Request: fold
Amino acid sequence: MRSGIVAVVGRPNVGKSTLVNALVGSKVAIVSDKPQTTRRRIRGVWTGEDAQIVFTDTPGFHKPRTPLGSRLNALVGEALEGVDLVLHVVDAAAGIGRGDAFVYERQVAPVGAPALCAVNKIDLLRRHEEVPQLAAAAELGAYEEIVPVSARTGRGVELLRELIAARLPEGPPLFPPGEVTDLPLEVRIAEIVREKALALTRDELPHSIAVVVEELERSEDLVRVHATIAVERDSQKGIVIGRGGSMLREIGTRAREELEVLLGSRVYLELRVKVVRDWQRDPSAIERLGL
Reply:
């Protein structure tokens, strides 16, 4: 048996969370087209007959502009401590460049663990565009393997998983069979609500949204969830609520549908919106929001 921890790193919006979900074979991390969607260190667990891989999804590494940004970068650093392998994800469709080199220099090379590079979103390229992007990835640093993948279509995902498993040390499983994440249930619920809010909002509002589950009650046939959506300004609160509460209802409807699948039960979801002024720049507010 081989088992180990793999840190998944990359600049924002390269598809790390989508790739982690594909590698695990189950949705453990929310996804959106908004940069910096991932705000936590999220572990996803894949268990096979002779290997267990613990993938640690990390926030996109970037040059921070707020205390929240600094906190997210610190999470990446913490996630890299003691890992068995680093998986550097780059975006072939957007092009490989300085941001990817910055991540390699700061978050891949210093770790000293074996490193693989996943060249993601390969499905968005024309055939003749693929080789130049793989060559550009090779220029970033000393990877043991460079693997073209599409997290969206699944191309290359099984091969990447096999290459990772072969490089892990021998040892017993780190998690019980059947467990796919170590995230607390309240956090998974809050993240699903936030994912739906991100999908429905635009401009700078997604960056200002945080979600906290205040109460979670289970009965035989119903789960009651009371959650708060935090924003930074009164104008943002109005947008999230929408005309006559229409936006908040749509967020709740979409979230409830996914939560009922996750929990295997009917769900009563109550959402309220609260203004926490400039919380991204307030370290104490960041702590209160569980980030």
Q: What stands out?
A: The mean pLDDT is 90. The two ends are 35 Å apart (CA to CA). The longest strand covers residues 222-231. DSSP finds ten helices and nine strands in the chain.
